[in-house]
Amino acid sequence: MEHFVVSARKYRPQTFKDVVGQQAITNTLLNAIDNNHLAQALLFTGPRGVGKTTCARILAKMINSDGTETNDEDFAFNIFELDAASNNSVDDIRSLTDQVRIPPQVGKYKVYIIDEVHMLSQAAFNAFLKTLEEPPNHCIFILATTEKHKIIPTILSRCQIFDFKRITVKDAKDYLKYIAEEQGITADDDALHIIAQKADGAMRDALSIFDRVVSFSGKNLTRQAVTENLNVLDYETYFTSTDLILENKIPELLLQFNNTLSKGFDGHHYIAGLASHFRDLLVSKTPETIELLEVGEQTKAKYLEQSKKASQQFLLQGINLANDCDLKYKTSKNQRLLIELCLMQLASITFDGEKKNSRHYIIPASYFKKKGITPISVTPPKPTVTTNLKEEHLTNNKASNPNSTAFQVNEPPKIILKKETKRASGLSLSSIRAKKEHLIKQMDVVIEDEDLPKEDFTEEALINVWNAFIEIIRKKGKHNLASILSIDIPKVKGTTVYLEFPNATNKVEVERNQYDLLSYVRKSLNNYDISLSISINDVMEKKYVYTSADKFEKLKEKNPYIDLLRKTFDLDV
After folding, report:
1. Least enclosed by CB within 10 Å: which of 59, 358, 442, 506?
2. pLDDT tens, 179-198?
3. Which of 375, 372, 347 is nearest to 274 (CA)?
4. pLDDT 10s digits, 136-157
5. Which residues pair with 81 in a beta bridge?
6. Which whole-number Å values give the CA distances from 289 to 91, 203, 283, 286, 304, in the listed order?
7. Pairing mode, strands 220-221 and 531-536
8. pTM value?
9. 141 touches 43 (CB < 8 A)
10. CB–CB of 139/100 below 8 Å?
11. Which H or E element spans position 144?
12. In the Cβ-directed half-sphere of 278, how many Cα atoms lie within 13 Å?
């Protein structure tokens, strides 16, 4: 079996030009070498896997190069690497200071690379201070750390500090693409992008993930293989969730969330990713901010397409709800319910119940087609506006006094502006009530003015239509109204339908919905002269209040053995 070298070691940069994403630092070091302006104590700090140790090795090799050495020369006699995590005692530093006095055997400089320097003990730092401040001319110290804040200020003040930045997703993806081409691997752009995102700014992590995914999928690297191997939520999950939210499909949305959990994903990760997805959609709506979208070209096209479906107001409100759920997740006792409630709220943002059920009409259009009636458009008369009031008054004055030589200008009439009535809010209770009353009045006016059918009907036919309407509203979820309409059986006298209810609450509820009720009854019975009369009967209300004794008597009437059971066991009612 041939020895396998991981990509992080195989493709470790050998020159500053090969270093990914640290152009500012590499240019500074190159200029310092060219101008002989290199400090003797350098501190490389930054996140893991961004090239600190690699740049230290390249620098150590370059300062000893004079152009006469071979390509494979690594100056191993001049470069000393010390791991401060395992050599952090005072004795280790004393041994180091003793070696510093000896000049290099080959080359010009001895370079000491101390990795994870923040792991040195307080005593070791103090023992290192004097040597670091005044090192020999042939010695250069390069310190590397991921936690600069743990280094004492006296060490920091003696070093020239270089802050390495996190590698961007674009730079990491481009380098992975180069490595894939070197190895003869076909890789989707989105697949490499997901790996670069998963690496979180560390090139070494990106290369390790790349090796793992290649071992899983072989020479063909697809987005599906990457998401399956890395156990990350694919973009398609969030695109589907957003489509379901915009279409107000709450049951399907909850089932999709349940399917996501069944695959082993964390609910917290799902809701945080959904908030980021809304953010990316918001960024995609403006051409100036599309460059903030760090995704592949295929995915970017999907973002641009879906951003047209979602309004900016929806996305802002969605980000707010998802972010609020994210903050409450860790403290919640029922975390799944918290996310499901958030998803239902998101799916209800664009839901308009009145708009979706706005099938209210008085007379169907098909009725006029059957009767052969063609509607006549009526144009309202245009108001006559006098453009020259002064000329009109002069004419009137001359007509009343023709012998007058001097024209008398009458005082123009006073223009009285009609005070505008205050408009009620569209969401107030008074406006809703006024809307219902307006619909009823409009219906009555149409009935009086139009020659509509008034066919005879029986009370039995009315009851059948009545029960059919109750069944319809019960299916729509209006169980309260259905129960109220079932309290009394309607009686007919002429074309008037009489109802009795036990209290005023029932009457008010029916009156609020009488427009839909009468429209259905009139259309079904083909009689548009039907009206509704509702009264309150206090006796009926009393009938609906039963005591325990009343209930027992009713049960005894149905089954006399209940009384025998009570007497046998001496039970109380």
Report:
1. 358
2. 888 888 888 888 888 888 88
3. 347
4. 888 889 999 988 888 889 888 8
5. 113
6. 56, 26, 5, 6, 12
7. unpaired
8. 0.53
9. no
10. yes
11. strand 139-145
12. 23
